[in-house]
Amino acid sequence: MAASALSNLASRFKGLPRNQQLGIAFGVPMVAILIFVYLTWQVMAQLGADPSIPAIFRREGMGKWSEISAVDEQITAKQAIINRKGEIVRRLTELQTEISEAEERLPREAEKAQMREVIERLARDIPPEVGTVKLKSVRIIEDDSAVAKANSRGPSLRTVVYQTEVSGDLNGLIKYIDSIEKNKRFMSVNTISLRGGGVRADPESKGKIQYDLHTVKMDLVTYVYATSSKAKVGP
After folding, report:
1. Which DSSP string corresponds to the chain?
2. Higher pLDDT, residue 178 or 148
3. Tens digit of pLDDT for each residue in 41-88?
4. CA 4 – CA 10 distance, rounded (Å)
5. How far apart are the C-alpha atoms of 121 and 164, rounded to whole Å?
6. What is the pTM of this model?
7. Contact 128, 160 (CB under 8 A)
8. Tell me, which fold does domain 109-226 have in CATH?
9. Among 66-70, 129-133, 143-147, 162-166, where is mean pLDDT lowest?
10. Residue 95 — very low, low, confident or very high, per pLDDT cuts 50/70/90?
11. What are the residue boundaries of the structural domains of the chain, listed by start?
């Protein structure tokens, strides 16, 4: 049946005038080409600007390729974040180390007496060849008026003042103050008063001048982690 229909069409085509035969011969392929181009153009619009397609066939605008590109950009951005994981972890570790070191510099509330022992030990540890320092007294005073409140999730910081009195020569006192401020545990010399030592003649050395030790009073300030802001005054 199909062969008969084709044979019938061929016979009719041969029976047409020459100009109609030429019109059909050129027209039908052109119509087919136009339909193909139109359908291809529609498909290209749905696909979008795929760089793998020749430029003449690409169509800009929203299409599957635009969606794919948007997803690729999101993947690239997330991958960049993932790639920074090592750096972020390293930085967090460094920050945690810095925080731990900073916390170690500040004593806990239970360590106030130990800080007084540190002050006493630093006075004893001044080398004789450097100078002389003799500790007279250390008195602990907690100052609630200078409490620095932390947030509700952390402890508060309480100011603790160590009123210290020592005697010594100039070189020994300078070394002592330097040792205090360079100590691992944070202490700062807040106030200092100096009373110069007297000058006298030593009769045993045939009138040689003797210099008595200077007297220094200092307020050494530190901060302690505290769970209560109740003031205390210690000996």
Report:
1. -HHHHHHHHHHHHHHS-HHHHHHHHHHHHHHHHHHHHHHHHHHHHHH---TTS-GGG---SSSHHHHHHHHHHHHHHHHHHHHTHHHHHHHHHHHHHHHHHHHHHSPBGGGHHHHHHHHHHHHHTS-TTT--EEEEEEEEEEEEEEEE---TTS-EEEEEEEEEEEEE-HHHHHHHHHHHHTSSS--EEEEEEEEPPPEEEEGGGTSEEEEPPEEEEEEEEEEEEES-----B--
2. 178
3. 666 666 655 555 555 555 565 556 566 677 777 888 888 888 887 888
4. 10
5. 13
6. 0.50
7. no
8. Alpha-Beta Plaits (3.30.70)
9. 143-147
10. confident
11. 2-81, 109-226
Q: Which position has the token pair 């080409």? A: 33
Copy the structure tokens of residue 59: 């169509």
Tokens of 14: 């041969």
